[in-house]
Amino acid sequence: MRFWGILLLLVFSILSCREPEEENPIIPITPVDSFKVTPYNLVYPKWNSVIWLRLKIPADNPLTVEGIALGKKLFYDKRLSGNNSISCASCHAPEHAFADNKAFSSGINGALGDRNSMPLFNIAWADVLLPGNHKFFWDGRKASIEDQVLGPLGDPKEMDQNLAELVLKLNAIPEYPPLFKKAFGSDSITMRLVMFAIAQFERTLISSNSKFDKFKRGEVELNASELNGLELFSTEKADCFHCHGNEFNPLFTDFKYKNNGLDSIPIDKGLGNFTGKPEDFGLFKTPSLRNLSFTAPYMHDGRFSTLEEVIEFYNSQTKDGATTDEVIRKHFPHGGLNLTATEKQDLINFLRTLDDYEFVSNPNFRP
Amino acid sequence: MNKYYITPLNDSIKCSELSYYFTNVSLLNANNEWINLGNYDLIENNNPESKTIVLPNVPAGDYSSIRFMIGVDSIANSTGSHEGELSPAYGMYWSWATGYVFFRFKGRTSGNRSVSFDIGGNQNLPIAEIPLNSLKNSGKSITMNIAFNLAEIFVNPHNYSLDSNSIDIHTAIDPDVYKLRDNIAKGAFTITTVQ
Question: With contacts defined as CB-CB under 8 Å, which chain A residues touch B108?
């Protein structure tokens, strides 16, 4: 019989032969001139007494107060675009949980992008939960937050900024070289350092103060409708949990790439555009369900304006296709989810408890 | 994984997702005592890094058998720390029932039917035990290759037909789930090399 499965490697290392390896070795930073950074104290949120999963911060780009401040300044600076007219925040605005409210955002040349602006919060956990090279963007084309920064900067439909020119432009702005020196020890600005600074700021965008977070910390109660919505969410009935986590997963996504049945034949190949594999056609990153009230419209192409439309889609309109996820397909024999009007409303009421008003108004995240 | 395989019962199926917990690796020493190395690892078919497991601090000794769980023990299942790979954020979790999804398989038959197994519940925990041709821990690290053959979950001791058995298992009380439990525990895992 043909082998069909997984090969595992078990390495038994002998008692007291060597110390367990450290997960994130701390690399000492050698002071250059008077270069000294202030390590950023990342406070992990908790649910009950359980700390959220620890992040994997790259050893060559640790979080520092100076780096994060610089990253924030760059994030809001319109001079990062080709004609100095838009910044990252133009399509990733704090009041929209660092997304915008359009199906497609317009770039500096007035052209519309191809996909819905993704909100930016809790994105660093994708690094922990996803293997391999497909971690960021709807189609998973980038492997790190640092690398992701380059996407919108260079895209002609977005900021359309020639990267070599950007480095010259920033070096010529008097306020920037001293800030790079404070953050990275060098006043010679490079693209790598721009990516590093913005990535640091993006890693600090943590949303953890929704009504549901407070419920998990025992600070507030949920009403009967919200609790029923949670139950529907967490069971096979509405079957959200296979992809969007559970009441012990504060991220409300698995970050993975799936086809949720939007189209029989995907209009946009998503991850498949990038890998070229037929089994990846029409797969898109599972978005978090936090902060939905601030991030409409929904889906990678913004085709649904309201949560009611989204729920009805999953209830009765999902389509079969070559890559449609089996968790969607398993409801086809029963004619969909068959949710009642009350159940749909309960589900929406639960989803609204994931809105984090403190996150969208947090002054630390604003210029 | 995008091609069809034939099961021992001649069902044709392709796999889109295969994940399972591989935990509590234990070794049977010369005193007939099981030494539990206490690991909790999540294995995912699309994650090559997950397929190498390093188990530190193995006591010196002469071992005659290895045992491991495909899933998590009842204690971790109900009162687990939720830390590391036991974090429910990995998505192998039933918040509405007790604890973890031990084993997940998603695929499609050549007739385009969805096959979706989520195996969980303490009574459905597969425990595999494989005799070793004497494993001596003499101070060097030991590398063991273990093969998991998915075809084996459809046979031995129970024949599992995708036509007559359940292809949509999402509760701990599914009447067919014990068959998959037994088939996973027996014969699906084999040790190919020990160095």
Answer: 326
Compute CA A96 distance to the chain's CA centroid, rounded to the nearest angstrom.
Answer: 14
Going from N- to C-terminal start, the domains of chain A cover 62-206, 211-360
pLDDT for the residue A16: 46
B-chain residues within 8 Å CB-CB of A241?
A: 94-95
| Burial of B36 per CB tally in 10 Å (0-12, 13-18, 19+) | middle
Q: Does residue A252 contact residue A289 with C-beta atoms inside 8 Å?
A: yes
Per the CB < 8 Å rule, is B56 touching A234? no
- Return the residue of A nearest to B56 by Cα: A13
Tally the domains of chain B: 1
Q: A62-206 falls under which CATH superfamily?
A: Cytochrome c-like domain (1.10.760.10)
- ipTM score of the complex? 0.88
Tell me the three state secondary structure of residue A333: helix
What would be the CATH architecture of the domain defined by A211-360?
Answer: Orthogonal Bundle (1.10)
Range of the domain at B161: 5-194
State percent of chain A over pLDDT 70. Answer: 93
Q: Do A277 and B2 touch (CB under 8 A)?
A: yes
- What percent of chain A lies above the pLDDT cut of 90? 86
